[in-house]
């Protein structure tokens, strides 16, 4: 009848027979598996002459998972902690099983956590690019696909296109359309163009090695030479590794792999190499046959290549991260003019939430990122957050102090959703559910008389002025 089903040796050494190697499950006796909760509920509450005459196991499992979720938010100690080193981008992705945050702290050189406070008066709103007149910018990028039978003209650097030509979008906001409604001209995108952290557009002005009267012209670029995954530029361009590349004939998900100086006499500026999943798979397969990740066209006059860091960046976020001291509002005159600074900091008193220099942050739930102030760059932060205890099978456990609350929550949920259940029975279990949750919360609060007494002793100290 005992509940311990493993030896003491197995508990302390685990499956590999070595203590503290990581495969042990110390402290597991205080928890009960959710599957055991479901089985025990069916045994105790479901059946002939019991409160619930019959219930499908799937129904019990559903209500048990919902009860586990709800209890995780305000009853269980379901808070998790994640340490993260803030990069120069000052952004941190939210954890996979994130529901809400408890607190965010910055760890100093002594390992002491200092609380960061949210910057409530800023955000990272959606921001779109605008034209000079204020109107929103829409891309008009497209190119005529060179179908079989096209003839290359070395003078103009273009192909003659058969009647069966097709149009295809290639811009950042491309929607995949392959034909224009009237058959001519560029395709205007249906989507607005967001603002990005970095974006460079290079116009295609001619073909590589194009000569006029026997003299080479200063062409902007040529892509596809050498390995087929290169782009040569006549002039230096603002391009960095990792930027996504868009252009006529450029396969999807192509990014910049390397950036360096050009060794071509025709293009003395710079050289970059490309990569994409299709090209990487082709290399893994032994580089046999035609590289499916290589650009399928040389440059087309009148079009452009687009290099973009797809991280969206609003003006609000750009200004927030560039500010050298966003955590101490009242010590920075940039927030207000000198008169208002004096009034806010002295006449009316300092705002306590800004009376610290630990740093600040804000959370953008739409993009799934936490944004930090500039003085947090390179530091370790600890995110304490709430999950719902349903992320993995290992998490689906219930503390024994809350086991009875789980049974009452499941029973009330089943009775309340079943037709022809007497109302007095539903109300009875509703009251029992709330009472069991209160008891569980008190038990899990883990208040110890000795510890509380020691804290209260400190409250009686006289502070001399």
Write structural notes for this entry.
It is a single chain. The protein is an alpha+beta fold. It folds into three domains: 34-78 and 388-458; 83-123 and 328-382, no CATH class; 142-312, no CATH class. 23% of the residues lie in helices and 22% in strands. It contains nine helices and 22 strands. The chain has helices at residues 8-13, 34-45, 57-74, 277-284, 315-322, 338-347, 403-416, 423-444, 449-459; strands spanning 31-33, 79-85, 91-93, 100-107, 113-118, 142-145, 151-153, 158-160, 166-169, 196-203, 211-212, 215-216, 221-223, 230-233, 244-246, 255-261, 270-275, 304-312, 360-364, 369-372, 380-386, 397-399. The chain has a seven-stranded mixed beta sheet with strand order 2-21-4-5-19-20-3, with no helix packed on it. Strands 13-14-17-16 form a four-stranded antiparallel beta sheet. Strands 10-18-15 form a three-stranded antiparallel beta sheet, with no helix packed on it. Strand 19 and strand 20 form a beta hairpin. The protein is elongated.
């Amino acid at each position: 009848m005992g509940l311990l089903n493993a030896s003491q040796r197995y508990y302390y050494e685990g499956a590999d027979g070595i203590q503290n190697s990581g495969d042990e499950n110390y402290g597991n006796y205080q928890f009960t598996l959710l599957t055991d909760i479901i089985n025990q509920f069916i045994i105790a509450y479901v059946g002939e002459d019991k409160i619930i005459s019959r219930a499908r196991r799937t129904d019990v499992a559903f209500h048990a998972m919902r009860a586990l979720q709800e209890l995780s938010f305000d009853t269980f100690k379901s808070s998790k902690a994640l340490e993260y080193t803030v990069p120069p981008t000052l952004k941190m992705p939210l954890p996979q099983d994130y529901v809400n945050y408890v607190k965010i702290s910055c760890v100093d050189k002594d390992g002491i956590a200092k609380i960061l406070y949210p910057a409530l008066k800023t955000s990272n709103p959606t921001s779109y690019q605008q034209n000079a007149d204020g109107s929103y910018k829409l891309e008009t990028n497209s190119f005529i696909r060179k179908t079989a039978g096209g003839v290359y003209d070395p003078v103009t650097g273009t192909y003659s296109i058969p009647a069966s030509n097709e149009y295809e979008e290639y811009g950042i906001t491309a929607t995949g359309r392959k034909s224009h409604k009237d058959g001519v001209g560029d395709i205007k995108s249906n989507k607005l163009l967001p603002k990005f952290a970095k974006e460079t557009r290079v116009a295609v002005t001619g073909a590589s090695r194009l000569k006029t009267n026997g003299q080479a012209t200063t062409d902007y670029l040529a892509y596809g030479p050498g390995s087929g995954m290169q782009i040569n530029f006549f002039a230096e361009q603002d391009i960095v590794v990792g930027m996504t590349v868009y252009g006529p004939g450029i396969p999807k998900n192509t990014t910049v792999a390397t950036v360096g100086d050009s060794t071509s006499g025709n293009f003395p500026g710079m050289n970059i190499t490309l990569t994409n999943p299709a090209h990487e798979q082709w290399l893994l397969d032994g580089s046999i046959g035609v590289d499916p990740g290589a650009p399928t066209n040389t440059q087309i006059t009148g079009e452009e290549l687009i290099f973009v860091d797809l991280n969206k960046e609003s003006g609000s976020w750009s200004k927030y991260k560039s500010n050298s001291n966003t955590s101490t509002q009242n010590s920075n005159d940039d927030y207000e003019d000198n008169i208002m600074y004096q009034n806010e900091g002295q006449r009316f008193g300092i705002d306590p939430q800004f009376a610290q220099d630990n740093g600040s942050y804000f959370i953008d739930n739409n993009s799934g990122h936490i944004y930090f102030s500039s003085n947090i760059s390179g530091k370790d932060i600890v995110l304490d957050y709430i999950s719902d205890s349903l992320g993995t099978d290992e998490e689906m456990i219930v503390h024994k102090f809350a086991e009875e609350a789980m049974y009452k929550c499941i029973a009330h949920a089943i009775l309340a959703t079943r037709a022809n259940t007497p109302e007095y029975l539903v109300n009875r279990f509703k009251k029992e559910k709330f009472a069991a949750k209160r008891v569980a919360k008190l038990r899990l609060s883990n208040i110890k008389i000795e510890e509380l007494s020691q804290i209260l002793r400190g409250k009686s100290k006289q502070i001399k002025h």
